[in-house]
Amino acid sequence: MFIKRTTRRVGDKTYVNHLLVESVTTPQGPRHRTICSLGSLAPAPAEEWQGLARKLSAALGGQTTLVPDPAVDALAGRIRPARRRAHAGPAAGDDMVAIHADQVRVEDVREAGPVHVGHQLWRALTLDTILAAAGLSARARLLTELMTLNRLVSPASEHAMPDWIRRTALGDMLGTDFAPLADDALYRNLDRLHPQRAAIEQALAARERTLFNLDDTLYLYDLTSTYFEGQCAHNPQAQRGYSRDHRPDCKQVVVGLVLDREGFPKAHEVFDGNRQDRATLDAMLEALEQRTGRRGGATVVIDRGMAFAENLAQIRARDHHYLVAGRPAERQEHLEAFEDTTGWTEILRTPSPRNPGQKKTRVVIKRQVSGAEVHILCRSDGRLEKDRAIRDQHEQRFLRDLTKLQTRVARGRLRAPAKIHEALGRLKERYPRVARYYALAYDDATRAVTWTTQADLQTRAQHLDGAYLLRTDRQDLSDEEIWRLYMLLTRVEAAFRAMKSPLMERPIFHHLEHRVQTHIFLCVLAYHLLVTIEKRCLDQGVHTSWATLREQLSTHHVVTVVLPSTNGQILRIRKPSTPEAIHREIYGTLQIPSEVMKPVKTWAPA
What is the pTM of this model? Predict the structure, then answer.
């Protein structure tokens, strides 16, 4: 330390001031740092300044003298408060601090692991760039990421979403204070996002195709339904129809989804809740061509709900090939071939590594050519047991209800012949799978309901247990290739299960049509992240689900470590907890950094 004389002229008067300064090293070189002002120091002579500076330096360092110097003590007392204000904390890079160990605490613990994975994969898919190209502002892109990560990690309504965001480390990771965030902003973001859905989906499919080198020659198409809570009076698409969720009491919409061979979404559409499967195919193909830019040359795999001549014609009209499961009635045309025990080829269907408890399933197939089509006859041991169990269950219920009706009529509780025939008709309608195996009759003279078993029909049905038919115009494929391509359709079913269970697509609480469509779009965006996560795991030979990973990552947090120091200041360090071995393993598998955020240090008075 030393004393530096400065002058300042105001008008025709000159003011003299003396500063206590010290030399410090900075990235720009040595600099003088002012400790405090000593005033004019008059009448002290200049030759005593250096000695005074040494005494002040010793006093500020805590040293005492045998003979107290009141002048030095007074100056040191003036300097200490000023120096404390000037040094709110140690200089940058100074990690040496004395603390009160028994006062150390941890504050503001926030879950970081799952949202860190979601954020890193959001960046890997360049979704922020894709949203910007679609015309969304920085604020809208940020909210869209938050809403998508919510569906991926812990699905909640827009009303509950702000509280969830504040309970996570998203604010630390994105460098944004979400304390003032309200649900109104999220609802308005749904409105802004809605017109850009197709453009975003198209750009995202192109990005994934490049990133993962995806095959664009096979499309898997299927549908599901999603039900609402409430009447949805302002949504014309909300209708009652065939419910895959077993909720015929609720209005619903039908969601169509197209995946590629690896399970990545290519396109999706939302249809009226009462729309038949077969009536959606042409609109879906049109949307698919717009999203992918591909015109013809692909193979479209669909289920038997769209195995109608007009559907196959729609596929061929766009120069695509088709692979479809035949409707149950079409098996009758091949009954003799099914009953013939020769010419079958055996295939073992290996269970997924994610389900080691499953058993291998034996499937036998046989090829037949019918004009321009190839028909693959299939028998599955697993399906055989399922078909028999379903038929036995339906048959027991049918005979139970038929016996109840017989008793009502015999006891005179139902007398009108027209009413009795109506009841018989309702039973046939309720149990179509087994009612055709019985001839039902009512004799008005004896007032008796009777039935007889049509053994030939029942025997024929038993011969077809476990049997199904595949149809395709691809004559260049082997029997096994055709069967395995059709089995890929289960990936769409898995996608729907993921969207409905971990991503919580339903029930839907929105009542406006465009917000319902955007809600489903956010679920599809979240599924893009989910399938990317699982794809990277599979590429590394790791067979696990996102639900398992999410649970394992939930113990990786961001915390604030509070360190009360001995100099009367409090040091707060905002930093992530040290990743555990399982966290590091997951991050390595997903090829993302294990560092959630860089530590932030702040000092404050005690």
Answer: 0.79
